[in-house]
Amino acid sequence: ALGGHSLLATRLVARVRAAGRACSVRDVFEARTVAALAARLAERTASERPALAPAVRPERLPLSYAQRRLWFQYDMDGASSTYTVPLALRLRERPDADALRAAFGDLVARHEVLRTVFAEADGEPYQRIL
């Protein structure tokens, strides 16, 4: 038997999908052995998995309730350091500026929240993802 639990099954499914094969957590738990799982996956093609399509969304997105609350607080009290977390690191060696720049670029590209700006139009706040 394959053994494991749902978190391990999820990790296995992610790796199988990254290899271009359609697989679900159900497949993992229904297959009693690795050989049975391999046979089950061999019967399918990656084309059975629906293609991902980028979501169409408006340029201006509404704020969540939590974001709206913070926006209102900022509007009433002005700038605050309440949600600022200062951090200083001491490096033993001089960092590779190009590698650091590339790493931050990858991080920003991967996470929309790091590319989100907040603005206001006609008294209504909104967010826009760059």
Chain-wise SSE layout:
Layout: H1 6-18, H2 25-30, H3 34-42, H4 65-77, H5 97-110, E1 116-121, E2 124-129
Explain how this protein is built.
This protein is mainly α and 130 residues long. The chain folds into two domains: 6-48, no CATH class; 65-129, no CATH class. It has helices at 6-18, 25-30, 34-42, 65-77, 97-110, and strands at 116-121, 124-129. A two-stranded antiparallel ribbon has the order 1-2. The chain has five helices and two strands. The radius of gyration is 23 Å and the shape is extended.
| Most strands sheet | 2 strands, antiparallel
Task: Count every helix, treating DSSP H or I runs of 4 or more residues as helices.
Answer: 5
Mean pLDDT: 88
The SSE string, one letter per element, is: HHHHHEE
Strand content: 5-15%
Please mark out the parts with pLDDT under 50 across 5 or more consecutive residues, or reply none: none
Q: What general outline do the C-alpha atoms trace?
A: extended
* Rg from Cα: 23 Å
